[in-house]
Amino acid sequence: MDFSLISSNILSPPVLFFFLGMLAVLLKSDLEIPQPLPKLFSLYLLFAIGFKGGIELVKSGVNQEVALTLLAAIIMACFVPVYTFFILKAKLDTYNAAAIAATYGSISAVTFITASSFLQELGIDFDGFMVAALALMESPAIIVGLVLVNLFTADRESGNQINWPEVLQEAFLNSSVFLLVGSLIIGVLTGTHGEEVLKPFSQGIFYGVLTFFLLDMGLVAARRLRDLSKTGPFLIAFSVVIPLLNATLGILIAKVIGMSQGDALLFAVLCASASYIAVPAAMRLTVPEANPSLYVTTALALTFPFNIIVGIPLYLYGIQFLWR
């Protein structure tokens, strides 16, 4: 294992500011990010990665590799919540098992962005169409999770039916998915002209916003640490082992498809990450029986920091070993 990959990732400014946020909470500092700003940071990051992805998609075109990558992304987004659901059912009720499975079937855009900046610092190229894979992987897990709830709960048959129009609207039209896909389409439509017009905004301040966003995520994650006592050893182990397993599957698929090393890392990160924005919002609305402290805490306080500190360099090490 090349530990310089880990140190390179940990010593990047965004990740260090994530630790600074956690340290502020642990030391009981009064550091706060005014509440409207984290939402603005999140919207900006989704716009920037979607817009840039659309432009890069125009540049690369839609070839066999792109089509296979997008197909693999959809398959993994549907497969992960199904197999993890049955693992979780061994210890949890159907509602919590489905909510956590959906969380791990979806993706974390911030982890993807952190992996992108890691690749850029190392000078490893990757293709912009991977953003399209990110957009495609966000929603299917929500649908699969709700199907599992419907199939494995008896009380749904006695009048407590899922409101599918509402579920589908939350899955495909929630603010994160809508802005990401919309920005991707605008990037495709405007191409290089749009890139030149918005370059100072979409690229010039990108890492500054990412750094502030991760500072806020550090504050939020540290506040969730106390909830770990509620998850127990099973979920703590789950939140580390499942990302490793999903990343391994993603790397093997990337190898079969013939992705470049940079694209393979981004695909592995998408497979290994867990949603703490879109899926929790959907689950809170449609599966109120599930406990948010379980699916939010495991994704945000355990899997997210594990991926950005250890996972990303570990996955790249595995990719470099297999691609020799």
Walk me through the structure:
It contains 15 helices and no strands. With 324 residues, it is mainly α. Helix 3 (36-60) crosses helix 7 (130-138), helix 9 (164-173) runs antiparallel to helix 14 (278-286) and helix 11 packs across helix 15 (292-322). It starts with a helix and ends with a helix.
Low-confidence parts, pLDDT < 50 over ≥5 residues?
none
Which sheet architecture does the biggest sheet show? none
Secondary-structure element order, N to C: HHHHHHHHHHHHHHH
Basic shape: globular
Q: What count of helical segments does DSSP give?
A: 15
Beta content: under 5%
Amino- and carboxy-terminal Cα gap:
15 Å
Per DSSP E runs of 2 or more residues, the count of β-strands stands at 0
Mean pLDDT: 84
Rg from C-alpha positions? 19 Å
Q: What is the percent of helical residues?
A: over 70%
Structural class: mainly alpha
Write the layout of secondary structure elements.
Elements: H1 3-10, H2 13-26, H3 36-60, H4 64-88, H5 94-105, H6 109-122, H7 130-138, H8 140-152, H9 164-173, H10 175-202, H11 206-224, H12 228-257, H13 261-272, H14 278-286, H15 292-322
Helix pairs in contact: 1-15, 2-11, 3-7, 3-10, 3-11, 4-5, 4-7, 4-8, 4-12, 5-8, 5-15, 6-13, 6-15, 7-10, 7-13, 9-14, 11-15, 12-13, 12-15, 13-15
